[in-house]
Amino acid sequence: MILLGVNCGLGNSDIADLKTKNLDLKKGWLDYPREKTEVDRRCPLWPETVAAITKSMQQRPKSQDGLVFVSIHGKDYRDDQRTGWRVTGEFRQVLKKIDIEDGRGFYGLRRTFQTIAEECGDLVAVRAIMGHADREDDMSARYRQRITDERLQRAVDTVRKWLLPIPSIGSEGK
Question: Do the strands 29-31 and 42-44 form a parallel or antiparallel pair, or are they unpaired?
Answer without folding.
Answer: antiparallel
